[in-house]
Queue: 2 jobs
Job 1
Amino acid sequence: MREEATTHQMIRTLRGPARPHKVRIALGTCSNCGRQLSNPVSGLIGIGPECLKKLRHQQANSKALSANLQVDPKKIIHLVRGADGAPQTNIKLTIIHHSPDGFEWGYGGSGPADLALNILENVLQSNGYNGPRVMCYQGTCFKEAWRLHQDFKRQFIENMPNQGGAIATARVLDWILQHRKEETP
């Protein structure tokens, strides 16, 4: 029976004799669950092996353009279709609650609901929001993102043309602020 190589052995094989003090660099945390990464390959791609398996399964039909892209309020959220017709976006998939098949747009279903939830979560995070969190099927989100995501979906995501489009993150932030004021007594 063949033994699996340890990470240290794999690095030694790839780079020759390893120096542990050189190899043990800060690998960061998983971009999906936030756990500390211990594998150098996981550190390079920014996601742990278990989360990678789950996300590959979840995103079989909806690959994000960049899993590590942070939404900047000065930028644009892009929603496009790939050559195969699969949805592609620069929004990081951090929360799964409604759709096992990933993001979608152009109708009022579960894929658009998860897209709306992830857009709001990313915009709130990138703007330093630090409110209470709620549990979702996979991951957690701000309670504020959860409270607003269905209305956001109806206003922005359901009406997006099938071929896609763009939403300015500044417009999303303005929408959030406006809807927070409406809820304040």
Note: The first helix runs from residue 7 to 15.
Job 2
Amino acid sequence: MLNNFQETKQLFFKDSNYSEVSQKAIWNLYINFISEVEIESNKDLYYFELEEINKCNKKLKNVKEGTLNLINAFIKKYLEWSIKYYKVQKSFKLEIENKIDNSWYISKLDFYNLCEKLMNRVDSQFILPLLLIRYGITGKQMIYLRTIKWNNINFETNRVTMYDENNEMILSIPVDFQFLKWIDNLKDLEIKRHNNTNIDNFYIMQESEYKNKIINYNTVNSRIYYACKSVGTVRIPPYSLETSAKVDYLYKLSQYNVPITGKFIEEKLLKDWYKKESFSVGATYKLKNLYDDWIKDEGFNAECTITYIIKDDKDLKITNTKSDNVKNISNKKAVICLTTKKEFESTIKAGEFYKCDPSSITKCCKGKVKTCGNLNGGMRLTWMYLEDYNKNKE
């Protein structure tokens, strides 16, 4: 039984030139991301204001770029249709188009906060696929992550490596101490759960019976879905996790004055990690564009507290690896906590002091979120760029 808002969308589809297949795809996106907000606010999409738009953005936080583009195209057409059909003001159309965005990047801090919550709610087998994907440990295609074994993780070189039947390396990805700590703890849980200490040659992801067989990829997807559902969040797309890992690595290399070009991404990251002879130009430059956009928006503030071991990257000719001497990126800005009036030279220092996510402090300064972090008494912290704060005082 359709509600009034859904019936209106059906009228729109009848007047539109969407194919039957496109209508079905867009209808599913509408039901998953917009319809619930309409019901909660008792407003049709064409009457949405900032509050409703923010609710939609929260649901759309981790969707793929292509999905977001499809939703935005639908919104644009629907609002144009609404203007003619309901005589709605044009300003509503512009308001929504300018506010719906795609926050695909998932910081390490946000990710491990999620993992901490999951530890009290789900089995380790539901956390493992998220952990592997967040570090890009997926193989040539996402489906290959099912074949990762415990003995592919090398605690001495800080890398995850895989070899094919001819003993040729097909995967080599750097990991950090956080990953190794978590993987070690999860392995201990698997040993206790199955009462078997000799699992080094076993696949990391297993069926409940622990038969050491490659599981179905649909099972992996289901585990990701139910893990996210258990903590009340929407399913995190594997694409967002994997791309976040690649962007982290590129950012770390950029701190050593390595130019992040399309050619470099293909040669040093994609080929080095996944050992493929070539990658499509589209895949390479899509990652390059995502990285460039991320750097402009929040790059410096996101991951520079994460330490990568890059022992195998000798050809980079790194002469100085001490973080104190690393050249600062130009978008480093001083901030002030409006709650306490304490000033910091960067969001990194602020995040370290109040134990909160630097990238979320940036979003707070830009007005994307209201608060970030809290005092011991529970009072939420608000932030502002120090430059903007001083201008307002004048």
Note: The radius of gyration is 23 Å.
